[in-house]
Amino acid sequence: MESNDVEDEEFGFSRNYFLAKELCGSGKKSARKLSEIGVVDEQELRDAYTKIESKHEKEIGDLVSSYRKSYSEWAFVLRCGFGLLMYGFGSKKALIEDFASTALTDYSVIVINGYLQSVNLKQVAVTLAELLWEQLKMHRKSTSESQPKSQQPFLTRSMDDLISFLDGPHLEDDECFVCVLVNNIDGPGLRDSETQQYLSRLAACSHIRMVASIDHVNAPLLWDKKMVHTQFNWYWYHVPTYAPYKVEGTFFPLILAHSGSAQSVKTASIVLQSLTPNAQSVFKVLAEHQIAHSEEEGMPFNNLYTICRERFLVSSQITLNAHLTEFKDHELVKTRRNADGEDCLYVPLTSEALQKLVQEITQ
Amino acid sequence: MEFVDDILTFSDLGEHLKSRGCYVANFSSLDFSAKNGVGGCLKTLLRQFLMVDIDAPEMSILASWYTEKGNNENPLVLIIEDVERCYGPVLNDFIIMLREWVIKIPIILILGVATTVDSLRSTLTSNGFLYLSVCEFTLGTPAERMDAVIEAVLLKRCQRFSVGKQVSTFLRNYFLRHDGTLTLFLRALKDFDDNSILLTETFLKQARDIPSFQRYCQRSANSANWANGLSDMKRLRKLWSSTVMCLYEVGKYRKTTLLDLYCEVLEPGPDNSNSPDHMQLPKHNTMSLHNHDSIGCPKKEGYVGWAIQRVRDLPVVELCKLLNRWEMLTRGIKEIHEKVKELHSLTTFEANHPKLDQTETPRRQAAARNKVNEKTDKATVNEKVATFLQCIVGEYIQPIESIPFNEIVFFDDAEKLQTALIGDPRRRIQVDLLESNKFLKCSCCSKNSGMPVPSMHNTSIMYSLAQEHGDLINLHEWYHSFKSIVTGTRVQVQKPKKRLKSSPSPSPKKPKDSNEQTKNRSDADIQAEFCRAVIELQMTGLLRMPSKRRPDYVQRVAFGL
Q: Where in this protein does the record put region Disordered (chain B) (predicted)?
């Protein structure tokens, strides 16, 4: 309790959302652009990203191995019919998989990686059913029961069928089950409510036990009371590891690489290079005009048409329009009104970025 | 009904109806979603009855299946657990469709409604609603069931395991204030059960070290062995639970729930375990006890005292009934049962005699005398029963901690239970980040309490820095404060509170100052670390990425723990 009070004092000011809102007001005055940081070249950044040294490697190792002595308890709780839910800061992928490979060796285990962009849950259910089928067959052989009649392959069955097979009363003892490890059950691939419903129904099956990890602070909002209490039946464990989210973070954009102008110049030049030389030249006319008159709203359509005609780039307004439509589709060109009420064309890039782009396409 | 609690009720009902020859199908609200449509419902229906998947579901298939069965006595029963959550139009269409076939296929719908029956009217169109002929059944309230659960699990099976004051209070508070459902309670009970199995396994090996066993050995010097200790424990627990049940019977006169009583009786301390206290209590506190009565909130100290007083005040007939119930409750426990029987026969005698007198001598005087007699008799009988109650409470309601071997069955770790059953990721993950050195137990980061130091985990530094910002964090400023910390150039004297009024973040150091230190860590490294920390915060949901409108800001999501 004492430590809580200390926290209260230390972070008391951050507690208040409205205070935070006020702070934001004062923050705006000193607003600085992200581009002012002086971001290094994207490739260099990515190289450095792969080579980040982690701090406290020894302590992290100690922390993670300190959980090893709880493995037997976890396995026991799992056998009792609870689902294990691991939370706390740090990647828990290695921890869970280590747990499975040490303490769950008697059972079949399958791993679902929720951090992937999409997960085929039907395939998961099919695999689970096949594993259970194998396990049951082994069991029947050892107890010399009669083999059940051959049945429809799992792949062609519906999800409901598969779930009722996994939930079916095949054996008297509960010890015959398949473990499902879900890394990031709150991950992007599993976040929608339909998938969560299926997962909860899977978790509720008598022959399935589930071990999952969450990272998002609001992950419990994915589940309603029924799912949490009767289907997943979670037993929460707070296991911070502080291990880097290496694999889990693969699909997130680097904040400094993505929003920099480097990215947009690169993509724009790729688009432009795939167009015809005439189209490129039209774009260049527009770009040069914008560089020369950077304070203006843009270039009126008629001016552009006149210049392009003079240079024999287009023969009619229709062809010019075709080019412009192409540019607009790729967000290379936008229109806005100037003070005279004329529609002006402009390239949504800064002057420096535009210069760089023009250089790239002239090469 | 409370739909989470009643899932089992419905599946049991389904099983029961099946055993009576009905055809039963269970639905949940998911089957009545807009996405599935009526076709989806029908598909589920056919799947459950015909056991096959049909691509083009039609009612005629069901009808022919039903006539094939040839047994037209038994109707089809469809159970829908949670009607409120169904998509109204689909449910409505489904009901209209069933109605069209009702002559061929008689169907009974069993609908679980959590609010009021009127809610059906709002989900269905008037047309669909008219087709239903509604019968209402009300299931027991959660509070009633809670009492039944406590009686069945904690009192009747108490030799197996028992819980302490803290745990029971935690569960009671959770039940009353948060959830209102039994499910968590039941899960908790399962958890104790598991825990006690675990404990039993470990304790059997090291029984000699159990402190209470040692105490027990000291008390009864002669051959204190295992079996005696355990059977003693069993006996004491049984006496304890039957005494609680007796108290509960008295408590019924003012609608005390068993849950409240249970929590109260568990209170360790002298009040419940020492009889002299109770002897004094009722006499001094009669007035205040009556107050409690009227308000209906039993005060802890008062309950036993109140119960005894109540027994004193009971009319003979009621007392007789009470003793009758006590007799039933204590059957098999000879220590209490004999006395209860004795008292019971005494009261039945008292209860019968005045009646006879009254009928035989209807004269006023005699009646008056009788009344006086009755009063004194009643007083003595009531006093006897009250003394008896006092006695058993004093003798048998002992704190569980004093019973030998209590460690095997006793569980009072409310905190462990709470963390296991109700995780608190929102708070815990933030604490992980803000106090990383507590978990990592490193020597380097604990020196500077509260202020980020370069050796800390990068994401920890970043999140601590984010605390100083408003709901929007300027990426540029954030990066520079991060950079100044990891390169060790940040002025450490600054206190976060001071910065509240000034600029939210220290102005970035000029490269000139930090040139020496930054040499060994290139910008690329620091930027990469920054990126990773942002990604990690994004994954934990503590940050929202820059929008198109505000490309230079990220948004903070959590404020305070």
A: 493-523
